[in-house]
Amino acid sequence: MKNPYQKSPMKIKENERFRVFIWTLFDFANTSYSIVVVTFLYAVYFKQTVVEGKAVGDFYWSIGTSISMLITALISPILGAIADYSAGKKRFLLFFTLTCIVSTCLLYFVNRGDIFLGLTLFIIANVGFEAGLVFYDAFLPEITAPKNYGRVSGYGFAMGYLGSLTTLALVFPFIKSQMIKETFPVSALVFFLFAIPIFLFIKDSRKNVVRDKSFLRIGVTRVLNTISHLKNYKNLSIFLLAFFFYIEGVNTVIYFSGNYASTTLHFSMEELIVFFLIVQTTAILGSLVFGFFADSYGQKKSLVISLVIWIFTILLAFATSDKNNFVIQSFCKIFNSDPEKISRSSFYLVGLLAGSVMGATQSTSRSLMSKLTPFEKKTEFFGFYSLFGKSSAILGPLVFGYVSFITGEQRFAILTICIFFIIGLAVLSFVKDEKVEIAQIDVT
Fold first, then answer.
1. Neighbouring residues of 379: CB distance < 8 A, sequence distance ≥ 6
2. Which residue ranges make up each domain of the chain?
3. Long-range contact set of residues 261-266: C-beta below 8 Å, sequence gap at least 24
4. What is the pTM of this model?
5. What DSSP designation does 35 have?
6. In angstroms, rounded to a whole number, what is the distance separating the alpha carbons of residues 328 and 343?
7. Residue range 428-443, pLDDT digits in tens
């Protein structure tokens, strides 16, 4: 199959702009789940209420994230290969979307002490969310030209963070009334409503395939064939290795930022809301700016800059979480304030910096992956993209949770995140970001 955008006019048609908009709406939809369940409310609810604030809560949470990511990592390449063979991305996307939505609704029934139920429902919901992204991401090469992958991917993540802000606004009255459990079905409802358009308006070309074996066997066979020929995709393989390490850091930040702020810095629920508003707002701007930068100067340069900012951000978070270090004490004298207040205030700056590159790192990675991937194997290769991304998310949160548990302090665990970013940056230096010689399409 050829990329339909290889010979495209200078201006895309109105219906193609419409498809880009509809595609980004799914990002708007699914981040209602990620902000409420993964990053903020359920993550904090699980630690403070379900596990009753015990230190082992971080370890339990890391086990849940790791299991869900392991399942997703194992099934993604096979499902992607099957979808490429039969051109059935939408039906897989629908199945996993509904899985996530239903499981998120059921989190309402998780109460104090329901550790097994709380983890099981979270694992199912997270598998639905993460596996669905394989098929959603694979639509990117079909809705725009390679020259625009960076900005369109950035549009998607920006729309996603806008969805996070909208969801936070919707659940704020529940939070003020201490009705945390009620926010879970609200999140599921937002996901459901705004996910509908992609299934109605984005066409998924279907193939009439003749098969003499099961789809599972076909998927496994195609994956094994791709693995055996990975030597023909050296540049892509190096990128996936770099992605494995640095996305480990991003995933760990997403899964533990809420717990870190509430446990180590003792943020109240209102302070957490302000913190995540800062993160989501700067993430919108970062996704858009880095998207345009990636298309103009290259995805690799964009990723390098974002990873350098990440490393600085993690080191800043570590330094400012120690109330007795030189930096905090110096600010205490300058502003005539107590160490805890300075430490808590500085974490807002950490959130601002993290937000500016959180969506940017993910959207630029997605656009570079789209550029390096053979068009006829797009879903299968995005399955490998998911495999590397999700398998990395097994190790990062697990290491963070374990270090936090054995030391009794999350501030030491945060240094493990920095190591992943440094290794990823080093491997990324060997990736070639080749220019795509193709007429630019106006998607604005």
1. 80, 81, 83, 84, 89, 134, 135, 138
2. 14-205+214-428
3. 261/347, 262/44, 262/47, 262/48, 263/47, 263/58, 263/410, 264/321, 264/409, 264/410, 264/411, 265/321, 265/343, 265/344, 265/347, 266/340, 266/344
4. 0.74
5. I
6. 7
7. 999 987 654 333 334 3
Between residues 282 and 400, the one the model is more confident about: 282
The residue with tokens 């007795």 is 324
User: Which pair of structure tokens corresponds to residue 437?
Assistant: 């010689």
Distance in angstroms (rounded) separating the CA atoms of residues 145 and 143: 7
What the block records as the tokens of 157 is 């993540």
Phi, psi of 11 (to 5 degrees): -115, 130
Q: Are 254 and 39 in contact (CB under 8 A)?
A: yes
Under 8 Å between Cβ of 167 and 36: yes
Over pLDDT 70: what percentage of the chain? Answer: 86
Identify whether the C-beta of residue 18 lies closer than 8 Å to the C-beta of residue 201.
yes
Instruction: Report angle CA 190, 196, 200 to the nearest 5 degrees.
Output: 170
- Between CA 191 and CA 166 the distance in angstroms is 12
Domain 14-205+214-428: which CATH class? mainly alpha
